[in-house]
Amino acid sequence: MCFGHSVPSGLKEATVVENGLIASDMWRLILNTREWTGPPPDPGQFLMLRVSEGSDPLLGRPFSMAGFERKGTDAAIEILYRKVGGGTLTMTRWSAGENVHFLGPLGKGFDFPPPGSRSLLFAGGIGIPPLLFLAREMASRGRCGDLSLIYSEPRCERFFPLESCSLPGMDVHFCTRDGSRGRKGRVTDWLREQGDLSGVHLYSCGPTAMMKAIFIMVAGKNLTAQYSLEARMACGFGVCMGCAVPVPVDGEITYVRVCTEGPVFHGKDLIEESFTGI
User: pTM of the predicted model, to two decimals?
Assistant: First the structure.
């Protein structure tokens, strides 16, 4: 595990192309940024999006990317979000043509599974964006048939409309708390019923309690697991240390920053206490 980091050189400007409700309390934001330089982002990386040009709110907000597409020298970035506070309330009022600023891409994304391997993607609620991005990238490589997405929400109307995406061959299982779509229960109920998981590549993003439960269930099994951790981020590039979580290193517990060493971590590098739910 590498603990180095670099500070981004500056804010990038993007123009709002689309911003609207696509599910119960879920918004889709499409940004166009001019003259994208460097490689495309990896699924699991995130942006620190400036919600205001003033001091209220002062800090940016971290958002995992749900999609990325080059358009000549420009690039389109897709973000999914829910209204949870003043910052995201402001975002719901953005309209097409407005200019916004962001830092990114930031952090460490997912490692792709090797060809021919089986992958399980566990998404809980607004944890769907980085896993949707991963599925889209796998689709571009003709590998959606290797994926099973296990996706949970409290109620059916809160799901992202997967039918709007081209993900041919991906196996999808829905779980709802009230049984209004798919099976009634949690993604861990589905996982508990699976047989031999040897060689599986598991990916998870969602509520901390869900990821911790998955982590405990698969501990000691012959599989590879990656988790996109949640933490409060103030800067997004490792300076403020506000998103630190405990991990084991050489038999001792130390703290690493979710924004730089993560947000994606391999399960072998975590302990139960890493899932702090900050």
Answer: 0.92
